[in-house]
Amino acid sequence: MVRKIFLGARIFDGERFHDDKALIVADGQVEAIVARDDLPDGEVVTLAGGILSAGFIDAQVNGGAGRMLNDEPSAASMDIIASGHRPYGTTSLLPTLITDTSEASIAAIEAAKEAVKANRGVAGLHLEGPHLAPARKGAHLAELMRPVEDRDVKAFIQAREAIGTLLVTMAAEQVTVAQVRELAEAGVTISIGHSDCSSEAAEERFDAGARGVTHLFNAMSQLGHRAPGLVGAAIDHPSTWCGIIADGHHVDPKALRTALRAKRGEGKLFFVTDAMSLVGSEKDSFTLNGRTVRRERGGFCSKLVLSDGTLAGSDVDMISTIRYGVTYLDLTLAEALRMATLYPARFLRLADRGHLSPGTRADLVHLTDALAVTATWLGGEAA
Known about the structure:
Elements: E1 3-7, E2 10-12, E3 17-18, E4 21-26, E5 29-35, E6 43-46, E7 51-54, E8 56-61, E9 63-64, E10 67-68, H1 75-85, E11 90-98, H2 102-118, E12 125-128, H3 150-163, E13 166-170, H4 177-185, E14 189-192, H5 199-208, E15 212-213, H6 229-236, E16 241-245, H7 253-262, E17 269-272, E18 285-288, E19 291-296, E20 303-305, E21 311-314, H8 318-328, H9 333-338, H10 342-348, E22 364-367, E23 373-378, E24 381-382
Parallel strand pairs: 1-6, 2-7, 8-11, 11-12, 12-13, 13-14, 14-15, 15-16, 16-17
Antiparallel strand pairs: 1-4, 2-3, 4-5, 7-22, 9-10, 18-19, 19-20, 20-21, 22-23, 23-24
Helix pairs in contact: 1-2, 5-6
Family: Belongs to the metallo-dependent hydrolases superfamily. NagA family.
InterPro entries: Amidohydro-rel (IPR006680), GlcNAc_6-P_deAcase (IPR003764), Metal-dep_hydrolase_composite (IPR011059), Metal_Hydrolase (IPR032466)
Pfam families: Amidohydro_1
């Protein structure tokens, strides 16, 4: 048995902090958190203060390290994207294919099968489209959007069985309640997004098994006092999870603070980056479906826009969202960490990660007290 002993940092186990303790890792898994005077034999990894946490989990990553998944939906691209986000503490992510052709979706599914087996940080696949609403297209191409068909349901179920974790964002207008129920019962994680639906239509799909809402507030019907829309349904429905983009551009912090206070169902909001290829890259532009997206520097972090000013994903990384949460959203450090670890793991039903309990993966991140990433580990090995 190969055993490592991590010493010198506060340990955050996903629920609470442990001071003056050691994390014991054996054969790539967490074995225990023990007192410093109760250490087993093993290789000692001494950390210079700071915080040791489970690695971050990102359910929505379009690109990184100069690569967009849509440009080349391959296992190699997924590995590059995962490696590009690792310096920012993300040890598990879902490469995300935005609205594209059927051929691109098929290629992404095949790539995810291979990338998940490689076990280098790709935890599944997120298909954000093409079953979205043109009225709330955002930076997606409306001409490629269409309703869910029976063949799509069959393909999603087969993909989920092969990949393990499959998240699909759909507009309520493009999927029936019966289709949602069939997909959910087969283990596909359905998230409602890019939708102009009524609150009632959203609630029907939540009750049928739709598990989440994609980037709350963005590209959806808003909260009105007589027409609560998708935003109102998402906040009010107690079992519904919501990803949020905390970058200072996508949502005003006052709206996020309101949602955090108002959300029914404790611990149901979690961070996503919606990151594009420029994260981990020095470039200032890239091409998305033949359109130029440029980086505009300034604010908490840069923003990415099309020529008409439409936001096109984000330029934020996961550790930055945690800093944003603590600084602007009135979150405790523990809650901000949960929103990047424990909560996305629960949303995606990844029981083997997102917290440091016996038997979980030793995917770890070490942070300074100023919340800068110093190191990451995959399965207990430096990454």
